[in-house]
Structure formats: C-alpha cells, structure tokens
Amino acid sequence: MFRKLLASLAALTLASAAVLFIVRAANADAANISITATQATTGTTTLTYRATVLKAGTIREITMAIPAGTTGRVTSANGTVSSVTSTVLRWRPTRNITVAVGARLAIPLYGLKLPAGGPWTLGFKSIGTAGQVITSGAGVLQPIKTYTAQVAVVASNPIPAQTTNLTYQATVTKAGTLDAVRMQLPTGATGTYTTINGTLTVDSGYATWKPKSPINVAPGARLGIPVNGVQLSRYGGTMTLSVSATTATGTVLTSGSASVPFIAPPAEMPVVEAAGFASPPAGCPTNWPSTTTENAKPGTGDWVIPTSMNGSMAAYLTQVSAACGDTVDLKVTSGNLVSVVAYRMGYYAGLGAREVWRKDDVPTVVQDKAVTGGISGDGKELRMTSAEHWTKTLSIPVDKDWTPGTYLIKISDGSAATYAPLTVRDDTATKHDLLIQQATATWQAYNSYGGSGFYTGGVDGGSGRLTFDRPYSEGQGSGQYLSLEQGLVFWAESKGLDVTYWTNNDLDQYGGQLPARAKTLFLPGHDEYYSLRMRAALSQAIARGVNVANLGANTAYRLITFTDDTRRAWDIDRYTDGYNSTTWRYQGDAYASQPLLGADYICPVLGNTLTTGTGWIFDGVASGTQLPGFIAGEVDYVWPDLYKNPGQTTVASGTGTCRSNGRAAPMHITTYTAPSGARVLNGSTFAYGCFLVGRCPSNWTVPSPDAASQKAVATIVGNIAQWVSQGTITVPADTTAAKLRVAVPKHPLQTNTQP
C-alpha cells in the first residue's frame, strides 16, 4: 500500500521556500537530530529533519524513519524521495552537495498524513559518496499540535429582556486568510448591532462579520468578534449558539458552538402599601378564641350534603370574604322555602363543622337564567356568565358569633341542597402563626355555572372575564374547597394550631398587611390565578420575612386583573396568543413561578405513586413507603433554564404521567431560604389537602387514599409546617391523621389539560 502512495514521489509537487542546507563553521561532537512537524493548509503534515554534520564529504543519500502507519503523497525539495521500507524513506539530492563538519542539514518532507499517537523516536542517517557516514542519530517527533475550536460566547449582561454586548470567541483550527465570521444570535434577539474592525450584517438570526482587509491566521489563533447592542428576548434559557470562520473560497478555518445561559432573575414587583387596621366595629371582639377553644365547641355532621340532594338549587354570596360587622347578601334560585345554615369548618371532634347561624323557612324564587356576554373596551367578546341580576334572598349578619375561619353556607329545602362558601377574616391586627389562603380566583376560573368558565364554553375555550356573581358548579356549590382545601383546614384545626384564613381577593386587597397578619402562609392545592397585586404582595411578604409553604402546584401561573375595587370580576388576556398569553410566563421568564416559589408547572396528571426517601420531610415515615396517587392533579418541577434561588434544594422527587401526552413528568418538592430569612417550600402536587381527609377528587387514580397514606401525608405536612415556620409552628408529637367522622361525597374536580 505504501508503494502506491509513493508511486510519484520523484515529482516535486510543492516548491520549496526553505533553504536546504545552512552551512556554518562549527565543531560538532553530536548529530543533534531534531524533527519538527507543521500543518499545511491542505490538511497534511510537513516533517522537517535537522541534523549536524559530523564528517565532511559529499552527500549521496539520507534515510529518515517515519512513524508506522503514515500515509500520504510525499515530496521534498532539492531532491527525490523513495521508500526503503514502510517506515523508512530515502532522499537523494538532485545535485552534488558537499558539506563541512558542523554544517546543519534541513530536509523537509511534504504531504504526510501521520497516524494518531506519538511521540515517536525516529532515526536519521546521511551517507557520503565514498560510503562514509556523514551524520547519524535519532530524534523525537512530537505529535503535531492540533487545536479545537473552543468556542465561547461571552455576554456582558446576560439578562433576558435587557441589552447586552456579546463577544464570540473561537480558536482557529486551520491556517488561511480570514474572510468572514458567521455568528448565531440568541433566539428572538433584536437591536441596532455594532462591532469593531469590520462590518456586520444580520439576516435570519445570524450576524456575519467581515474584516476591513483580509487577515492571515494560523492554527491556534484566538478570534474575538464583538456584537454590541443585542436586545435579548424576554424569554431566556440556556441557548446553544454557533460560530464559523471561513476564507473567501469557503474553506472553514474554525467552527463550533457554545452554550450560553440567559437566565432571568425574579421580576421586580411594585410595592404594595400596608393599610392600617381599623378598630373592630361595635359588638366585635378585639381577640378571638384560640383554635383549641373554638374546636372544643359542639360540632355537627349536618353540614354534609349527600349526593342524593344534588339538584337544580344554586346560590351565591355577594362577598367572597367578610369580617365581623359586615353583612353579606345571599341569592338563591329554588322557588321553595329553604333553611339557610352557616357552618364554620374545622375539626370539632372529627365532625368537621360547627353550626354558627341559621334562618328557616326563607322564601325563594326561581331566578332568571344566568346570562353570558359582554364586550371589552377594545371590542373583544368577554363571554362572561353572570347572575348579578338575581334578586336578593336574604342578608346574613357576620357578628361576634362568627369566629374567623372558612364557612359553608348550606341552603336546603329538604330534598335539594347546595353550598355557598364564605371566608371570615380576623381583622383585629392579631399576628397569627399560620394563615391559610383560599384559592377563590382559581375556583372561579374552573366554574362553568350557567354557561362559560375559563376552560368551557364559546370559541377559544371560554371566558375572558369571570365574575363571582354566580354560584359554583363544582363541589355542590363549594367550588374547589371540599375537593382540595378542606383537608388543610381540618388538619390545622385538629392540631390546635394558631391559624387564620383569607382568600385570593384578600391577598389582592390587603396583601401589604400580610407580614402583620401571619408569620407563615400556606397556599392551597390549586392556587393558579394571580393578579399583579397578589403576586407583588406575596413576593414582598417573602422579602419581609414571611415563610411560605405552597402545598400545591401550578401556583401563580395565570395573570388576571380585577376589574375594579369590588373585586367581583377579573379579566384575563386570552386574545393575544390564546392560552399562552394568559400565563404569567408570557410576560417573560422573570415572571415564571419558579423564581418566586422554587419550581414551575409542567403538566396535569391523574395520579402516580410517590416513594418516600430519607430527608427531613419524611421524618417519621419509613423510607420506601409507597403513597399511591399522591403525585396528582398537576405537578411542578425545577426547569433547568429558569432562575433557581441561591441555596435551593430538592427535598423530594417523583414521576407523574402527563394526561396530555402520556409522557413521564418529573415532580420536584423544593426549598430555599430568602435573603430575608424567610423559608419557602414548593410542594409541587395538588394532593396534600385531600390526602389529609382521605378523600380526593373522584376522577383521580386514587380518590380514596388509605389510612396509611393519610397518616404518612399528615406526618409530611407536619414536618413541612415545622421546617418552614422555623419552629414557630409546633405540631403535636402524635401525628396520627385526624379522622373525619362524617361521610362526604367525592366531588369531581376538573383538571383540564393546559398548554
């Protein structure tokens, strides 16, 4: 094979630009053999053998060893090359050359393709015309130094939605005359681009730089091309950007890519002012009974509406929440005499509620149907379903007997019944250990009573405006309270915790007071819809030391705007880009949930098993315990290309199966400590609340968690409460799950696939 490669070696294929012999006066006592390798523009290697003459004479030939496995079409200068063996070449001069002792020989061999490996020790021998050895010895050939592109892209300000200067760097891997450098721009970038020492053109997401005049570059040279004035998209992430440098004929001098993180820190939020607390109205206490005292009062199971009483009766209240001294109006559609009973939800020896107020034989009418319609100021169809036109059935006074808490108002005519939910706030300026929030905005989004909800009715999936002026279609009129939130209330009150309550609407209105109302905030299973004031208040509270445990997933995911100060309706932008434009993340990565809470929504799941581990969150639960159906509803995980809070940790993880596509979805429960010292936990599944009462939505894989799972989750929630509160909340050592002694129907929960 080697002979074929050397078949035309006698031909001089490359003109020599080097001096073959350099004669100098010297006394040499050693051959001083050296062998160097350089890379040619053709991609082949030139070997140059150098040696000192030890005996004067006229050169007949020189033999030179080459590495085994060398290939190529080999030529030289001022002589011809032939093969002796597969690893030895013979060079003979084209004219007589006489050398003196001390002269330095230099023999180039062009066109070789060296094998991998090295270094190699190679022999060199020069023979004179009289047969004498003119010089002889061996030298070491080091492998030719090769270069990789080593591409890097450096950003002066790598923040999405801001302006940055980018420097594209790459190492030249092949010698040549540089004509152009083509650089991939970040996705969605715009700007008035500038550079130096050349011209810049931008087309189809790439910037091409050309030097003012051709530049000769050698392998190993480092390019650094600035592209200034790049306006980054508000969507960042870790982007892979390519760089290539070429000659005028298209020869690639270097090419490669580099990953560049463009990660948005949490978005700045407006300051939410903290209004002062008003003095309690006349007849209202300045201090309310403790949770333990309240739950020692007689409870009742009469609050439960059996499935057999589900029917056409419906009702709603004209306020989402109230405080002592307020009056709330009730609107009912029935046509029969009804009893109206207010139940405070809690533990009450396992009965789950206490009767606080009632009025019997209340006359009702059959109200007109709810109406759907409405046009926004810019001509968009709102498709809002409203029963605001219903007539008032009666007024309910909230007085000193209404201990702050979550309430279900039960309306019944003996054969049909429904609920209307109400949250009663503690407005006495008392700072509680724990505040549990009700996700009323999310309840309304999933409400399809009378026509449209966010996900149902009309084109594009439903309403662009939702109102609280109508009954809830879910949970026998309770919204998502019974299916996802009652469990947290039942658990907290069964443990005697110092707990109080409010709603999404209250977070919007009174959010600035949050640090004065509670040391720790629990968010419920499905708290998806947030206004700017809600998000700003939550962010501000964390920055001011309020601990937050998000015992849910998909939190603060969609952006809403309350239409006025009554907060009876809210708008959502489903017109700009469908479901996408309704999300907070559509505002940019800085507005994702992960920078705020630690993880972000990935997809809906019906119910997968969580296997417990050994971290503190599972203290008291044997490692390896199976919790079937706990990864349920919707799940969050830590997106690698979104901001992660310093010190953030994943304390538990599992895998769900996405309802939308059947793919595996990682679920991460995360924690971090804010600069304020506040602790934040993101629970990343809907299931905490419903497992605490052993009753989950009927369309989940496990609608009735067994007693062992209920006890394990009660222990986990107790660990979370103690960790996130930094010991302020002490859960009794007996973490046996409290038992709800009454049978409650398993209400379905709509868990729509979300884009």
Architecture overview:
This protein is mainly beta. It has a 7-stranded mixed sheet. Strand 38 and strand 39 form a beta hairpin. Helix 5 crosses helix 7 (532-543). The two termini are 62 Å apart. Residues 1-28 have low confidence and may be disordered.
- The largest beta-sheet arranges its strands as 34-32-35-37-44-43-42
Q: Stretches where pLDDT falls below 50 for ≥5 residues?
A: 1-28
Count of DSSP H/I helices? 10
What portion of the residues fall into strands of 2 or more residues? Answer: 35-45%
**What helical percentage do the residues reach?**
10-25%
| Overall pLDDT score | 93
| Morphology | elongated
Largest sheet: 7 strands, mixed
The separation of the N and C termini measures: 62 Å
**Structural class by helix and strand composition:** mainly beta
- By DSSP, the count of extended strands is 44
Q: What is the gyration radius calculated from CA atoms?
A: 39 Å
Question: Would you summarize the structure shown here?
Answer:
The protein is mainly β and 755 residues long. Helix content is 10%, strand content 38%.
Helices and strands, with pairings:
Blueprint (H helix, E strand, L loop, with lengths): L1 H4 L15 E2 L11 E6 L5 E8 L4 E9 L5 E5 L3 E7 L2 E6 L4 E2 L4 E10 L6 E9 L4 E9 L10 E4 L7 E9 L4 E3 L1 E5 L13 E6 L2 E6 L3 E3 L4 E10 L5 E10 L5 E11 L28 H5 L18 E4 L3 E3 L3 E7 L4 E8 L7 E10 L8 E5 L5 E6 L7 E4 L7 E8 L4 E9 L6 E7 L1 H6 L19 E3 L13 H14 L4 E5 H7 L3 H4 E6 L5 E3 H12 L3 E4 L7 E5 L6 E3 L22 H4 L2 E12 L14 E12 L11 E9 L6 E10 L5 E4 L5 H5 L14 H18 L31
Parallel strand pairs: 23-31, 32-34, 32-35, 35-37, 36-38, 37-44
Antiparallel strand pairs: 1-9, 2-3, 3-9, 4-7, 4-8, 4-10, 5-9, 6-7, 10-11, 12-13, 13-19, 14-18, 15-17, 15-20, 16-17, 20-21, 22-24, 24-29, 25-26, 25-30, 27-28, 30-31, 33-39, 38-39, 40-41, 42-43, 43-44
Helix pairs in contact: 5-7
